[in-house]
Amino acid sequence: MIPRYLVDVELDKLPVLDKDVIVIGAGIAGLFTAIRASEKHSVLMITKKSLLDSNTRYAQGGIAAVISDEDSFEYHLQDTLIAGAGLCDREAVDVLVHEGPKGVRSLIKMGTQFDQENGEFALTKEGAHSQRRILHANGDATGFEIVRALSETAVANPKIEVWDDHFVIDLVTQDGECCGAIVQKQNGERLFVRGKATILCSGGAGQLYRYTTNPEVATGDGVAMAYRAGAFIRDSEFIQFHPTALCYPGAPRFLISEAVRGEGAILRNIKGERFMERYHEQLELAPRDIVARAIVSEMEETKSTFVYIDITHESPEMVKHRFPTIYETCLRYGLDLTTDWIPVAPAMHYMMGGVRTDLNGETNIKRLFACGEVSSTGVHGANRLASNSLSEAIVFGRRIVKRIEELPELEAAPHIEIELERSSAPIQAVVERRLKLQKVMVRYAGLKRSEAGLKKGLEELKRQLPIFQSILTEREEYEFANLLTCAMLTTEAALQREESRGAHYREDFPARDDANWRKHTVLHRTQGITEERIEDV
């Protein structure tokens, strides 16, 4: 079993810092929530690298909200529910679509500049959206623009203290209440940060897989530390693989945005044949999981490691204007988006599940909140609708801040029980272990899964469990422990769900089974795996 704390510490021997609100992580969720919370509270933002290192920064497509007169809340609600394949919480989706536009206005107030055409917002359409409702910035650099505006606002704010290069090891709890966190500084010194509210905004776990569009820092720390603290982790089997990441020697798995297909790009296999009509009537704009599996099937059939995305039939001016970042990045590797077919393959992109919260972003542990990709609010269901993640972070960030205002002052004086004396030496060769873990996940818990494969994967992961008896001191060691935790949660939940739904595909159970499986899988450190029925229709 995974222990309660990653390190043995005596709390009363650690230096203590008091803040009203502790924000762990720095993407759109962390920045936006910290700025809103600072209106009435002192805020500490802790990031393990810097304010600019997060998944948000790499978000190209944009942010989905009902802005246009031709669009409606009802349309956005329906599109999200359909993409979520029967597992969305209707109430949470309702909150998202109704409060999204207000959140976008807040972003604009905080300095975000979205693209405009003739004095109106330039709205685009992405896969599985029925209307144009995606706001974007600098063509395809929306995330970067949002992070730029918010981080400038946060840094200039005297009520927000930012700690770069600090690692949060664990959450401290007492009697079902979160009292703060144990933090390690760059020099290895540890301290206890105490707060009235702690908000996890630590992003996803892209590094579970060898190929991912996520940055190096996406190691599932928030999910793992919340799990250790006794939070419920919901729907961890639903991992979204983006169908089209650049697949070229020497190049990173750079995202080729869904919006490229939204603007007319087509997919071709290695023989140059367009293939999506064999898989779905929406062709290239089918839901992401379908497109990703179709690509894998074509790759297997043609014994190739990639397929092509082709937008060469559109005018070069439009392509360069609409996708400047993608165009420039491809060019750096000798690929011209306007004249070349670009080699792409699926890569891990987004984690639909996470720490279960209510509609105010609060977990089952009092004073502990989760926002953004680390959370499971019920919005995404079994498959996230493109560009809903940025809106989700803002809408629930705003709600979390309102809920914090109702909290009484913290009175608990926490004490940590040392469960097991850690004796073994620090673990060796973390980099190799991480690579091995990623390979296990790709092979057994990737786009296509089966009982035999998942069991074998789980067995291989369990061989790494002795790490929890080791004395850990380095960031890479904590990250590996967190990745191992998330890998086991994902694999266990995938083994439990004997059907195919949304982003979870079982070759031995290829059909969706609403009669038995229209429910969530929920994992808890001491209660094990349970199921949660879905009340609404």
Automatic annotation (TrEMBL):
Q: What pathway, per the record?
A: Cofactor biosynthesis; NAD(+) biosynthesis; iminoaspartate from L-aspartate (oxidase route): step 1/1
- Tree of life domain: Bacteria
- Cofactor(s) for this UniProt protein: FAD
For this protein, the Enzyme Commission number is 1.4.3.16
Keyword list (alphabetical) reads: FAD, Flavoprotein, Oxidoreductase, Pyridine nucleotide biosynthesis
Q: Which residues form the Fumarate reductase/succinate dehydrogenase flavoprotein-like C-terminal domain?
A: 434-527
Give the reaction(s) catalysed. Answer: L-aspartate + O2 = iminosuccinate + H2O2
Cite the FAD-dependent oxidoreductase 2 FAD-binding domain residue spans from the record: 20-390
Instruction: Say where the protein is mainly found.
Output: cytoplasm
Oxidoreductase among keywords: yes
Q: Annotated Gene Ontology MF terms?
A: L-aspartate oxidase activity; steroid dehydrogenase activity, acting on the CH-CH group of donors
Q: What are the catalytic residues? A: R288
The alphabetized list of GO BP terms reads:
'de novo' NAD+ biosynthetic process from L-aspartate
Q: Where in the cell is it found?
A: Cytoplasm
- InterPro entries assigned to the protein according to its UniProt record, in alphabetical order: FAD-dep_OxRdtase_2_FAD-bd, FAD/NAD-bd_sf, Fum_R/Succ_DH_flav-like_C_sf, Fum_Rdtase/Succ_DH_flav-like_C, NadB, Succ_DH/fumarate_Rdtase_cat_sf
Does this UniProt record's set of keywords contain Oxidoreductase? Answer: yes
The cellular component terms of Gene Ontology attached to this UniProt record, alphabetical and capped at eight, are:
cytoplasm
Biological function = Catalyzes the oxidation of L-aspartate to iminoaspartate.
Q: Which family does it belong to?
A: Belongs to the FAD-dependent oxidoreductase 2 family. NadB subfamily.
Q: What is this protein called?
A: L-aspartate oxidase
Lineage here is: Bacteria, Bacillati, Bacillota, Bacilli, Bacillales
Gene encoding it? Answer: nadB
